[in-house]
Structure formats: structure tokens, C-alpha cells
Design brief:
GO terms for molecular function: NAD+ binding; oxidoreductase activity, acting on the CH-OH group of donors, NAD or NADP as acceptor. Keywords: NAD, Oxidoreductase. This is 3-hydroxyacyl-CoA dehydrogenase. Pfam families: 3HCDH (PF00725), 3HCDH_N (PF02737). The protein has about 300 residues and is α/β, with parallel strands linked by helices. The chain folds into 2 domains: about 10-185, NAD(P)-binding Rossmann-like Domain (Rossmann fold, 3-Layer(aba) Sandwich); about 195-300, Orthogonal Bundle (N-(1-d-carboxylethyl)-l-norvaline Dehydrogenase, domain 2), CATH 1.10.1040.10. About 45% of the residues lie in helices and about 15% in strands. The chain contains 12 helices and 10 strands. The chain has helices at about 15-25, 40-60, 65-75, 80-85, 100-110, 125-130, 165-175, 195-210, 215-225, 230-240, 240-255, 265-270, and strands at about 10, 30-35, 75, 90, 115-120, 140-145, 155-160, 180-185, 285, 290. The strands form 2 sheets. The protein has an 8-stranded mixed sheet, sandwiched between helices. It has a two-stranded antiparallel sheet with strand order 9-10. The termini are far apart.
Length: about 300
Amino acid sequence: MNMNKEEKVVVVGAGLMGTGIAHGFASSGYPTLLVDTNADSLNRAKDSIESILNAGVKLGKVSEESAQASLARLIICRDLSEAAAGAHWLVETVSEQLAVKKAVVTQAEPLLAPGAIIATNTSALSVTEIAAAVPSPDRVIGMHFFNPVHKMKLIELVRGLATSDETVVRTRALCDAMGKTSIIVNESPGLTTSRMSALLGNEAMYMLQEGTASAEDIDTALRLGFNHPMGPLELGDLTGWDTRLSVLKYLHQSLGEKFRPCPLIIKMVAAGRLGRKTGSGVYRYEEGKQVPNSGLKASAL
């Protein structure tokens, strides 16, 4: 399927994922509007996208002309209704709260172009429940990107109960146009990757809590023993332990005891040690560098 690069894409939420997704669309040739109610978040997102593009130019992966064209295609906006008007695609990546996601799609849906597709970047919540908030649930699909979006090739496309075959085909073609590889997942708590990652990260935290090995050695074991690009504790710091805890609570409720959150995660979140975004998690982050927290134990938190 040939994609029309004139179709307008709206990305809602200027956090880490929204920033990466907006960069992905703009750099793939799509006019892209990034929406957030927080002006500071929007400005940080635009600066981050410009930094990604500049880094690509320095590495010779992107031409200066292409980088400037990508920036020209990106518009930041605080008004969802204004941004959604006439858009052909809407990708929401707001906080992992069902009520918030429903509110976004309910507000935007009447303003989108006829036949527009609504995608949710949720990693754990029900696409079917989100789709129930709009009159045409057949045009709602999960589009789960991975961080950092500009480096990660995979997108999980999640079929809700009402998602149509046409929506799947069109969205898969959009992924192809972005240079991504998509897989099709029938809606299930945690999908494929989040379910496995949550279980692995939770077990790694139990090992850390019990003193089985240091954080550095647990992460090294997964990187070198299983060829993972990043250890589970490093990944938790990158994702944010508040996000990981929210996913684990949902999976625990949905799938049972094997997903019960490790007490150390709960304690870290309560202490505000969320990972990279707060400068401290399992590791400390100083001037952009990861520094071991020597002797980290549950009692130390």
C-alpha cells in the first residue's frame, strides 16, 4: 500500500515516547503536530528532536537539508482541538491512565478527517476499552513504539475486539513508511514485550533485594549471557520505575501472583528514585553518565 505523505499526523503527549514518535513521523515525511498542555514539555521535546537530527547529521546518517525539512514539518501545539482538525492519524501517548486516554480520543475523534485512524501507544491498557469511547471503534488500534524510537525498529500493532482488518493493513503500511518492523498482537495484558520485560525486570529487582548479585553484575549477566543490549535494571531506570510499577500492578491484577511487584520497586518509587528522569534509580546519573550505587540494598532506600 502506497502511503500519502501529505496526511497529517497528530501525536498527543510530549513526554519521552511522544517526542520520539513525533520525530519518527516528521523525519519520515509526514506533517506532524505534537500536542501537550505543558509548554515547557513541548519546548523540551522540540529541542530533543533537533538534537537527534543534529546528531544524525554529524554521524552522516542524515543530510543537513533532510534534517531541516524534518524540523519544518514539526509543529508544537497546546490545543488538541486545533491540532486534531482534519488530521488523518492520531497517536496518543499520554499517561497510562484509562480515563485520561479516553478523554483524549473522545475530544479528538469528531474533529479528525473522515476515516482517520486513532492509535494508542499504551503498553498495558485495553485497546478495546479505549476504543469504546468513540463511535467507530473499528478505527482504533494499539501502536506500541519502543524507546528510543529513533533507534528501535519494532512496533507492536495491537488488535482490539473491534479493530478492523483495514485498520490493521493501513497502520502496518504506515509502519513500513517509517522504516519500522511491525508485529500483530491480539489484545492481551502486557502484549508480548511488556509482559516479558515486566517479569524479567521484577525478578531482577527481587534478586537485587535478596543480595543475589550486585545491580551491575545482574545487568552484565543479561547483556553478555543473553546478548541483551541493556540489562533489566538499566532498562527499568530508563523506562522509569513508576511506569514499571504501574504496569506490574495491572499485570498482577490481570494475570496473577507471578507479577506481584517487588517491594524494592515500591520503596524506590515512594522515595522518588524513578531512574534517569530523576537522576537516581538503581543507578545514579551524573552529567548524563550512569554511576553505580555501591552497596545498594533494600534497607538503604
